[in-house]
């Protein structure tokens, strides 16, 4: 009898230890330092007021992501939840960078993107292999990654936000529009920059108009393009219109028929979006997407103009963490050093 009681006590002890273990794990999962929200509790009251910002963190350019997050968080009082998307083997590094730096305050979720969904959908022959990185296509799959929000902001990693992100979030989407972008012809003129950009302002810069499938779309080649590096999207509309399916259809067609323009400065993710969203997207205030800062080492805007800009985008090959470009200081002031010491500014003095 005594033995039995002893065994019972041991079992009870083990049970308590197990429960404590589970509870501990739960409170350390999901990473919501700002409030102590429990993932499994009811949807919190202020969920509606949360602004979800989706941004990717690719292995070689995580420093870009962290600078962007830092700039967004520092310039708003809004309640932001960052969805930081990475491939499986980088997730722990993302977490470490956030939790062991000044970013530990932010509200974030780390989301894994499984690149197998892209199999057979990407032509391997781009002149810029960096644009073929799986994470470039995350924006096609937003409703698969984000479930709790209807309206979502997606940002490329090579941006810096200088305005209050609430303003961008308040962009109105017209009824029936699944997304809003900033048009490539709405950009305030900056001579140096527009000279560099040239044809990359129109559909002709992204689609091969010699191909029948493209001609058959009936879209004029001189139609102004838009840049999908900054997007405000409505997940309900996105699902209803099967946007992801439509984008995948054009990816597959491109694999078979090579439909994109060969000049493609803007990236292989842009072309299918130009087709699918043609004539049915809302617009973002151009000051919320000042771009082309990475088109050349000396792509130059007037300083006072850049100060008024709400969002700066270093699209192009001359990234401010690699090159000492004209306006790199505007990026560098948001840099968050890598606690693991892996990511380094190449041009650091
Ligand atoms: C999103 O789209 C749905 C369906 O059209 C609509 O009812 C809803 O009001 C839209 N939400 C926003 C924030 O625009």
UniProtKB/TrEMBL annotation:
SUPFAM superfamilies: Nucleotide-diphospho-sugar transferases (SSF53448). Coiled coil: none annotated. The keyword Phosphoprotein does not apply. Its main location: membrane. The keyword Signal does not apply. Keywords: Glycoprotein, Glycosyltransferase, Membrane, Signal-anchor, Transferase, Transmembrane, Transmembrane helix. GO terms for cellular component: Golgi apparatus; membrane. Belongs to the glycosyltransferase 8 family. This is Glycosyltransferase 8 domain-containing protein 2. It comes from Octodon degus (Degu).
């Amino acid at each position: 009898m005594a033995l039995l009681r002893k065994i019972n006590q041991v079992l009870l002890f083990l049970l308590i230890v197990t429960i404590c273990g589970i509870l501990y794990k739960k409170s350390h999962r999901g990473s919501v330092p700002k409030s102590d929200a429990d993932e499994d509790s009811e949807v919190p009251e202020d969920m509606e007021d949360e602004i979800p910002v989706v941004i990717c963190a690719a292995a070689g350019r995580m420093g870009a992501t962290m600078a962007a997050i830092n700039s967004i968080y520092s310039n708003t009082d809004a309640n932001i939840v960052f969805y930081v998307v990475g491939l499986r083997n980088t997730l722990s590094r993302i977490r470490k960078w956030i939790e062991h730096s000044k970013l530990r305050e932010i509200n974030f979720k780390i989301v894994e993107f499984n690149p197998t969904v892209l199999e057979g959908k990407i032509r391997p022959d781009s002149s810029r292999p960096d644009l073929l990185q799986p994470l470039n296509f995350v924006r096609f799959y937003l409703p698969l990654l984000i479930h709790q929000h209807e309206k979502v902001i997606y940002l490329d990693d090579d941006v810096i936000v200088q305005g209050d992100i609430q303003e961008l979030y308040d962009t109105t989407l017209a009824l029936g529009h699944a997304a809003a972008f900033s048009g490539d012809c709405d950009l305030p003129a900056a001579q140096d920059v527009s000279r560099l950009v040239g044809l990359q302002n129109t559909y002709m810069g992204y689609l091969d108009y010699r191909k029948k499938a493209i001609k058959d779309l009936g879209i004029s080649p001189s139609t102004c393009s838009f840049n999908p590096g900054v997007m405000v999207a409505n997940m309900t509309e996105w699902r209803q219109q099967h946007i992801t399916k439509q984008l995948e259809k054009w990816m597959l067609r491109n694999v078979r028929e090579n439909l994109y323009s060969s000049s493609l400065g803007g990236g292989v993710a842009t072309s299918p979006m130009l087709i699918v969203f043609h004539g049915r997207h809302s617009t973002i205030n151009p000051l919320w997407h000042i771009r082309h800062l990475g088109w050349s080492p000396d792509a130059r805007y007037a300083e006072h103009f850049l100060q008024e800009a709400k969002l700066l985008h270093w699209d192009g090959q001359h990234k401010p963490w690699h090159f000492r470009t004209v306006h790199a200081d505007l990026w560098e002031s948001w840099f968050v050093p890598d606690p693991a010491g892996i990511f380094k500014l190449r041009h650091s003095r």
